[in-house]
Amino acid sequence: MILVEELFCYAREIGVDLIGVTGAEPFPATRRLLEDRRRRGLYAPFAPADLDRACNPALNLPGAKSIIAVGLVYYQGKFPPPGGYRGYLARIAWGQDYHRVVGAKLELLQDFLRREVPGSRHMAFVDTGPLLDKEVARRAGLGWFGKNTLLVTRFGSWVSLGGILTTVNLSPNSPKQKDCGNCDLCLRACPTGALVAPGVLDPERCLSCLTQRKGYFPLDLRQALGSRLYGCDTCQEVCPHNRDIPVTAEPGFFPGGQEHRPQLVQLLGMNNREFKTAFGTSAAGWRGRTVLQRNALVAVGNLGDPDLLPVLENCLRDPRPVIRGHAAWALGRLGNRRARGALERALSGEGEPRVQREIRLALAGAV
Ligand code: SF4
Ligand code: SF4
Predict the structure, then answer these.
(1) Does residue 97 have an active-site annotation?
(2) Domain assignment of residue 256, yes or no
(3) What is the pLDDT of residues 66-89, one digit of tens each?
(4) For residue 338, which of 87, 105, 281, 285 sits 20 to 30 Å off, Cα-Cα?
(5) How far is the CA of 317 from the centre of ligand 1 (A)?
(6) The model's pTM
């Protein structure tokens, strides 16, 4: 299988850290697992909606023979926290959008295959495609599933995954036979108890899922959100497999300046154009301005600093109800006289029932 060796060699040349191959046959055990999760309300919101396509690769590319799985380490090393009122972005969103970074490598690998096997056909996927990138990577031998549901590789779990479904027949790799053993650090560290059992995540409690979901942030989890604006890294930070791992060699994953710790006041004041300029190339930008500003309001509420009161008063006049509602919650966390006055004035002019409820809760101190 000279082609596989050449492919792997080329992948290393272009900066792919992990690569493996699995066959394009279906994933029946995964399908059963996902159906069970769906029945129990534990299906991740951004997982593929179409289980037929997710678990039967050939439905996506007739004649498919193999799937190439790739992984790029994105761990950037330690960065001293910058000063000021700032929020937290998960590491995956620190630099350029990983869809683009990984996608560019996949383009090069497809070009390679087209050159080597004229007439071959391919379908690349990164995260949002119809296939299950983590399961593909596991079966291709890139790593094994940790109790935090993430793929643990020889470089830990700070790894962006992607793959190529191809009509080229490549020799497959074997899955890794490894597990977490007695460790349960991630289950104990999760701030919301979202890891309800080893390898089972409740998306209704996972802060990473919730920071990306539209609408009102669950009231009972707002304090646990801390200053997270996008994603949550806690169950990766505590993992022993993420100690002493190499820093990424991919320049695109590094933040250019301090944009990985956005200034909360600045973020809350952004219009759409400014938001696009600041977050357009980051993975954090995909859900849009309102979701990140909503999370920023929760972060401001959790900081509880009276100096931030004027910015909250401003947000209480925002045309978007979800912003007014979360500004009310944050003002309730300050709980001082000026905050109460702002809430009372806002309540008298508020027409939206859900925002009225948030204001009443804030005034009652139930936040
Ligand atoms: S990402 Fe955060 S909230 Fe979600 S399971 Fe991990 S530690 Fe818990
Ligand atoms: S923290 Fe421990 S239990 Fe969790 S994924 Fe890492 S090794 Fe497994």
Answers:
(1) no
(2) yes
(3) 999 999 999 999 988 788 899 999
(4) 87
(5) 33
(6) 0.94
